[in-house]
Amino acid sequence: MKIDGTPYRSVWVDADGWSVRILDQTRLPWQLDILRLTEAAQVAEAIRSMQVRGAPLIGAVAAYGVALALRADASTEALERAIALLGATRPTAINLGWALGRMRARLHNLPPAERVAAAYAEALAIADDDAETCRRIGAHGLPLLQEIQARKPAERVNVLTHCNAGWLATVDYGTALSPIYQAHDAGIPVHVWVDETRPRNQGAALTAFELGKHGVPHTVIADNAGGHLMQHGEVDLCIVGTDRVTRRGDVANKIGTYLKALAARDNGVPFWVALPHSTIDWQVGDGVAEIPIEARGAAEVTDLTGRTADGRIETVRVAAEGSPAANPAFDVTPARLVTGLITERGRCEASEAGLRGLYADAP
């Protein structure tokens, strides 16, 4: 994808051939800072602090973190230490464990002298796979928007999304935004309702930034406005991403997704979830009972960061002094509320039978 005409991926190896570059997403949309990571501890902190975020991107960046660790020490003990360090950063996104497991499987039985080159090659393969997977997700989701346009050719197609599931959350293209980008590029008059996505405002900051840079018409709305828009026929469909999908089709995504799904069901609005294969957790059945939900710091709820009129980036408190705050980062939308899943292999119902129909080769 492009920013002001310049193509970017969300993670790449620098011109020196070994250090890793990422976009600091905590600085967007106010400024474009490109960070250089040179060791696994920096990668872990970048993931923990959400300088990189989005389940597929976390996995790809963590894979490069393993490669950086092995440059310093290619022993088996160092490999396991790096995997443990990186694996402890974010608990909900299954892609993190998937990518680290793939790195372990590729590297563990190699002689230490061969591990560094193999680690970089495997990390690149993970990144390339994610980019192509997201492109295919967009291709399989595009017909949903084409069908709506065919029903109302003189009107725009209104899509509501929650959090950020665009190219900033993946290596390229995005999951939920990939069909939107492809529809826009195909000439479909698509318009996106962008939930602000409190408490970190990934919608207002990141999704709006992405869509604006690509020229996609969009409007930022307060999180609680979605149901109202659905009641008045202003939403044709919802598409969201996800950090983990159970084998039965339950979906963990940014906090507030469940409420959007309830509103969509009440108003007859299709609710689709876009995901890559790496987001499916075949070991978990009941998402509400079994998916670990990350609890983040209270300051994300009590404080807000933004740009002042004179251009300064400032953080201010918005909650009453002395009031505690709870901050569950995700919620789980049961499969019964999900119209269907959009994957790189096609679309299916949110159920074990639906997923197995696309992934018969899964464990």
From TrEMBL:
Residue numbers annotated as active site: D243 (proton donor)
A Gene Ontology molecular function term of the record: S-methyl-5-thioribose-1-phosphate isomerase activity
GO biological process, alphabetically ordered: L-methionine salvage from methylthioadenosine
Isomerase among keywords: yes
Keyword Metal-binding: no
Chain residues that bind substrate: R53, G54, A55, R90, Q202, N253, K254
First-tier enzyme category under EC: isomerase
Entry protein name: Methylthioribose-1-phosphate isomerase
Provenance organism: Roseicella frigidaeris
Taxon lineage: Bacteria, Pseudomonadati, Pseudomonadota, Alphaproteobacteria, Acetobacterales
